Automatic annotation (TrEMBL), chains A, B, C:
<dbReference type="GO" id="GO:0005782">
    <property type="term" value="C:peroxisomal matrix"/>
</dbReference>
<keyword id="KW-0576">Peroxisome</keyword>
<dbReference type="InterPro" id="IPR029045">
    <property type="entry name" value="ClpP/crotonase-like_dom_sf"/>
</dbReference>
<dbReference type="InterPro" id="IPR051053">
    <property type="entry name" value="ECH/Chromodomain_protein"/>
</dbReference>
<dbReference type="GO" id="GO:0000062">
    <property type="term" value="F:fatty-acyl-CoA binding"/>
</dbReference>
<dbReference type="InterPro" id="IPR001753">
    <property type="entry name" value="Enoyl-CoA_hydra/iso"/>
</dbReference>
<dbReference type="Pfam" id="PF00887">
    <property type="entry name" value="ACBP"/>
</dbReference>
<dbReference type="InterPro" id="IPR014352">
    <property type="entry name" value="FERM/acyl-CoA-bd_prot_sf"/>
</dbReference>
<dbReference type="InterPro" id="IPR035984">
    <property type="entry name" value="Acyl-CoA-binding_sf"/>
</dbReference>
<keyword id="KW-0413">Isomerase</keyword>
<protein>
    <submittedName>
        <fullName>Enoyl-CoA delta isomerase 2</fullName>
    </submittedName>
</protein>
<dbReference type="InterPro" id="IPR000582">
    <property type="entry name" value="Acyl-CoA-binding_protein"/>
</dbReference>
<dbReference type="GO" id="GO:0005739">
    <property type="term" value="C:mitochondrion"/>
</dbReference>
<dbReference type="GO" id="GO:0004165">
    <property type="term" value="F:delta(3)-delta(2)-enoyl-CoA isomerase activity"/>
</dbReference>
<dbReference type="InterPro" id="IPR022408">
    <property type="entry name" value="Acyl-CoA-binding_prot_CS"/>
</dbReference>
<feature type="domain" description="ACB">
    <location>
        <begin position="9"/>
        <end position="94"/>
    </location>
</feature>
<dbReference type="InterPro" id="IPR014748">
    <property type="entry name" value="Enoyl-CoA_hydra_C"/>
</dbReference>
């Protein structure tokens, strides 16, 4: 384009005006005001309109923008107009290379299906035959998908499960794959991975919504305390049998659950392993709303599509002001929980419980 | 009176004794003990009673007070008695100038009705034709009324609305009254006013109760997190459409709401703009109790009058011990919210949303 | 035993092997692995087994333990085996002196019944004719019983009441027993005792469960915010009439209650003295679950016995990770509440209220 030219010709200016009409995406009011003011300055010179009345907000904004250009020469204004349009076109082109239409499909994920449309990025756990148990690969892919979603142009992000389960939690066969460094190294690596994984949920910058389509266990339950909204089918259950497995709470649940549902209710879940129905989880504040399974997907997605149409910056900033205040604390809790859990994984109580679980499972 | 006399005569003393009988208001046990001890010292000299038994609390208190005067000369005791009564009478007189009987009416308020009786100061939003929307004047008058209520002799303070609405929130025509400094100055002044306004609710020293007679919107909802009790008619609804207006939460709600109702429920209100019924708001802990509209005023005021008869210092101190721990945090949250909102008010999202709202409204 | 011998004989070794079979208590997997590895090293020398596969967790653990002994001489391994068994036997003997069987009965308590069986230590308030009001002796005995329970081998600890009441709270006759130093000293001593008492609940290291068999008043209610679970009969009520008595909240309730049940609900209880039913207390999160009185004891103890069978270290550590984060804050709150209450006890409002209460009571 004409970025390097020192003076744009009248032809360049007209081309730029035509390009503006072809922009597929609204460049936003700030840019539009800038274009308006440069156009006026280039064609009429310094602002010559009477200042609009105080109630006339739109004309006041246009007047302000034009008037702010002062005595900028017409030629410079023309040049700036052409440059601005040029930068808009190229930035919109390059972003469309990343996003080929509305039905962008996930590629390269083994354990997830990731799609983005209607302003919503949907991350679906996709190991239905394993009840969407989280193996090491799925931990890594979820982190990758969250990082991508935080930068794409969706307004909200959704996590859900494919099949009957939301997720059966940490895949216990993770425990049997012992590296050369032995169980100590296994435990250490597990703690590092878990901490990084939970950290991605703490830091996620947009509204993050769980669509809990069925039973949820362990880490898939505790993480819900870090979501901004949780919609559940009445088929969903919420189960954190940490003590039964000789383990201790993670996902910041030792902090978020007592805050969400009072210590007396949180202890029953996290320490005594009580399984909650969707209705109970909703009454405790862990779930935002429960829907009958027959209409669950329809009702939830109708609602989510309406949310995704709200001003995205307002939503992002509103989440930020709520979350930022807690971020430092949440990261400290996460680090502490992972460190305690690392010790637990090496304890007799945990080893015995996992062995018993796996032998029961292999017999069935 | 005799305040300047160095020695009170027997006549002064007798006058003072008569004045005590005429006091319309109980001066409290501490003062009464003081009067008792000075009277005894003035008429009988140093304490000559045997010390009462440990179970005889009242006589023990009287004995302690008298005995504490030691060898104070009779004349000094008489003088002190006269001075004490004199100060009581004048303080009660001057306070009665402020409070002419039980039906003290607000004077000087344009947007409020303020009354004080039965130990309750009632601040009623009084722009029923505007659904009690808060314009700039009402912000200032509420602050003034709260400051007066914090110093008057009422035990509790109540905020309520006149007419069908509790309050429709911030009057959006506030946005159209642009000062000479332009929208930046407008936004800055708005943030300063809002911060000072919310600060008055954070610092209010007595039990503060909302009587929510009808729909509540925006700032009138978020402030409820700073009240000590919230009673609602079943006609009331609770709506905070901040994102819809390109704005972000205020009134400390980004901190109080997630604490009160769990983050998953708070986000649905504050970020996605869900409107709650009175029953829902009560289940979430935002409202203390809901009453049928037909009996609402009767039931609530019966209860409030009973509360107002409880020992006022105990109530004030109990509120203090709960609130003081949070005060510093709440002021920091308030400052942060106002600063973020100042930025929001200048954003395209907000300007477009407000313009759309006002044009829709002007068409209807 | 053979602790001082430098070389254990084959006879010592065989004796030790027999002793292991007689151990009444499982020494835990860690010790058993150690015994296994020393036995193998003593009888076969350095590890000569092929390394087991990654899925064969138990054999892998045994192999690791044996292999870790490297080239330790057979004699040293034999000696270490004998020493280890010797230390086990003596530690298990000494612990069995502390705990004579499952039906250990409380001895030396005047106001409590303390028993320990099925992994549960049960502390029962035992002044049924006084509605289990807490007199000074009971405060001291509860502290003693909690300290003993924190060190015994039970998995969980339960507090409950004998008779119709859970507890009617602080015994108001405590107020009438004035020491020679007068009411100031009385108030000071009361604040010191209360602070120490509440501190024991803050620091209790195992799951602590309240079995609320009937009405609960005052301190017996506020302390519930420090329990890990609260089960209540539907006969139970929850009443904190602090303002009515001119007093202010204790037991950390000024901090825990607003967190548990939202400020608007907490104020109604703590400042306005509203009495809650068991169902209301459960809806507010103060109570974990309510049971019909007819089946209360049966259902609750069935559940508690199941909890007591869960891995005790996992439960203790899970409680720890939840509680430790709050401990410093809770101790500060406790100190502040006791200091405020010390002032309240000396106030007219409190003295008058207590005198009125006791005179009404003496008339009835």
């Amino acid at each position: 384009m004409n970025r390097t030219a020192m003076r744009a010709s009248q032809k360049d200016f007209e081309n730029a005006m035509n390009q503006v009409k072809l922009l597929k995406k609204d460049p936003g009011n700030e840019v539009k005001l800038k274009l308006y003011s440069l156009y006026k300055q280039a064609t009429e010179g310094p602002c010559n309109m009477p200042k609009p009345g105080v109630f006339d907000l739109i004309n006041k904004a246009k007047w302000d923008a034009w008037n702010a250009l002062g005595s900028l020469p017409k030629e410079t204004a023309r040049q700036n107009y052409v440059d601005l349009v040029s930068s808009l076109s190229s930035s919109l082109e390059s972003s469309s290379q990343v996003e080929p239409g509305t039905d962008r499909k996930s590629t390269g994920y083994e354990t997830l299906m990731v799609t983005s449309e209607d302003g919503i990025t949907k991350i679906m756990l996709n190991r239905p035959t394993k009840k969407n148990a989280l193996n090491v690969e799925m931990y890594h892919e979820i982190m990758h998908a969250l990082k991508a979603a935080s930068k794409d142009d969706s307004a909200i992000t959704v996590l859900t499960g494919n099949g009957d389960y939301y997720s059966s939690g940490n895949d216990l066969t993770n425990f049997t794959d012992i590296p050369p460094g032995g169980v100590e190294e296994k435990a250490k690596n597990g703690a590092i991975l878990l901490r990084e994984f939970v950290g991605c949920f703490i830091d996620f910058p947009k509204p993050l919504i769980a669509v809990v389509n069925g039973p949820a266990v362990g880490i898939s339950v505790t993480l819900l305390g870090l979501f901004d909204a949780v919609y559940a089918s009445d088929r969903a259950t919420f189960h954190t049998p940490f003590s039964h497995l000789g383990q201790s709470p993670e996902g910041c649940s030792s902090y978020t659950f007592p805050k969400i549902m009072s210590p007396a209710k949180a202890t029953e879940m996290l320490v005594f392993g009580k399984k909650l129905t969707a209705g109970e989880a909703c009454a405790q504040g862990l779930v935002t709303e429960v829907f009958p399974d027959s209409t669950f997907q329809k009702e939830v997605w109708t609602r989510l599509k309406a949310f995704a149409k709200l001003p995205p910056n307002a939503m992002r900033i509103s989440k930020e002001i709520i979350r930022n205040r807690e971020k430092e604390k949440l990261h400290a809790v996460n680090a502490e929980e992972c460190s305690v859990l690392q010790g637990r994984w090496l304890s007799d109580e945990c080893m015995n419980a996992v062995v018993n679980f796996l032998s029961r499972k292999s017999k069935l």
